[in-house]
Write a structure and sequence with these properties.
Elements: H1 26-36, E1 41-45, E2 48-51, H2 52-68, E3 76-80, H3 85-96, E4 100-104, H4 110-120, E5 124-128, H5 132-136, E6 146-150, H6 158-164, H7 169-178, E7 187-188, H8 189-195, E8 211-217, E9 225-230, H9 231-244, E10 254-257, H10 264-276, E11 280-283, H11 289-298, E12 303-306, H12 308-319, E13 330-333, H13 340-350, E14 353-359, E15 366-369, E16 383-384, E17 389-394, E18 397-401, E19 408-413, H14 425-431, E20 432-433, E21 437-446, E22 452-457, E23 462-464, E24 467-469, H15 471-478, E25 484-493, E26 499-507, H16 515-523, E27 534-537, H17 551-556
Parallel strand pairs: 1-11, 3-4, 3-5, 4-8, 5-6, 6-7, 10-11, 12-13, 13-14, 26-27
Antiparallel strand pairs: 1-2, 8-9, 14-15, 15-16, 17-18, 17-19, 19-21, 20-21, 21-22, 23-24, 25-26
Helix pairs in contact: 1-2, 2-3, 2-8, 9-10, 12-13
Amino acid sequence: MPHSRPWTAAYAPGVPADIPPVTDTLVHAFERSVREHGARTATDFLGGTLSYRDLGEQVHAIAQALADLGVRRGDRVALALPNCPQHVVAFYAVLRIGGIVVEHNPQYTAAELAVQFANHQARVAIVWDAVCDTIAGFDRSARPDHVIAVDITRALPRRTRLALRLPVPRARALRRAMTITPSTPVLRWEALVRDTAPLAATTPLPVPEDVAVLQYTSGTTGAPKAAILTHANLRANELMGEAWVPGLRPGREVFAAVLPFFHAYGLTLCLSYGIATGATLVLQPRFSLDQLIAAQRRRPITFMPAVPPIYARLADAAEAGRVDLHSVRFSISGAMALDPDLVARWESLSGGLLVEGYGMTEASPIIAGNPIGAHRRPGAVGVPFPGTDARVVDPLDPSREVAPGEPGELVVRGPQVFAGYWQRPDATAATLLPGGWLRTGDVVTMTPDGFIIVVDRLKELIVTGGFNVSPSEVETVLREHPDVRDVAVVGARRPSGDEQVTAVLVLREGCRLDVAALRAFCRQTLARYKVPRAFVPVDALPVSQMGKVLRRRVLELLPRGAAA
């Protein structure tokens, strides 16, 4: 029995209250796009292109190569690749034979990757050649049986490949940044694509209940662990996205694939949803404003999932006359708060819509979004997606809902909610409640009509003197100070076990730290216990590849004994 869903009244015209039950898989959706859009460009990688027909042929060759290496249904295959055509092929090739894709950030340290590889025990790893030696050097507990090296420069246009071989310093530097020849024996991607016969058409397809992806996340309970996402989870989230943006045209859209596929946001919005709708994916191995501007001139983008810093930089470029954004009809922002002023700037420059969404890896990842249309509400992350239930509960007793409008922990359920954490029943039990409810770990308020406003991460709340302090609330105030360019607020642990509210600041050029002035500024808006007791200036804040400030890394920037 679904929970009450008052938010469906805010849905854009044509958006259903629910989605039909999932009856197929990511592989079915991929092969449908190959059949229906075979001649269409599937990927544009810095100007190098593959059609959907090309993509299908390479998927079937790599799928057979993996089967020849002993990969069977349920076996894990690790991917450690930037966004590139080979990543798209590898993803669907693993799924085609019933394997489980394990996504990794190729820029992780050897220690970070080794812990994950020891956990999932992949039989084969398909990796960027620059990290082959790292993975081949793991001890036996983590090392896969086979490593397949991918030279991403092979997907570039021929003229670009030739330019990278020029005997000039800039060309050599660019080539070193994109490819490194492994020193250990590995299998070569190009040889497997060229020399392997295609997979037999009679090979059984996966079913919706099969596990499709293991996606590593810090989750809601601390250390990184692998969320188990089934085909049904990911397809359901894809169908929700398809319903949410009814104006998208199958086989005619161009998606900006600037978000990394090893992140759930990029995986679902581009690698899954983009391919299912027959879109052209404009791939970037890492975000580059100049490369994105060049791509926009070469192949105008119509749909953009991104994060606020990317929208801000593109808006600056558009105001400077460097790029025309009028082709971008729909833009989705996630992973961090979206400034309403940025929304106004973007929409005036593009003529399209920019709406905020909300999700987490454990929900495949999208849970809620602002309606595409008149009912969107800047400052809120939106309303639950079709087929999604949501409640706000007491974090100490999640069986009890809080009063309407009061802050509490958001819990959700729906077909996109994951199956648990890989080999972590303790963490699964702490995150999944009876009845299929997922604890998000986010403190939110919900309006009577269902709009969700995120207050903070539950685990990032600062406890000082018995009071809870929201880091985001303090950061919002400090960003209004004219001397502050950026800030992260954290709780520095005291010997007593209490936490000290501490602001780590990036000051504007030419400004000096004035602690008394900053405290006085905060006291105009904040209760005394929320005002930072310490201010620490730094040159830059540590951020993820998504541009999100990493508060746990911020704590490492504090001087020893900062809260003594």
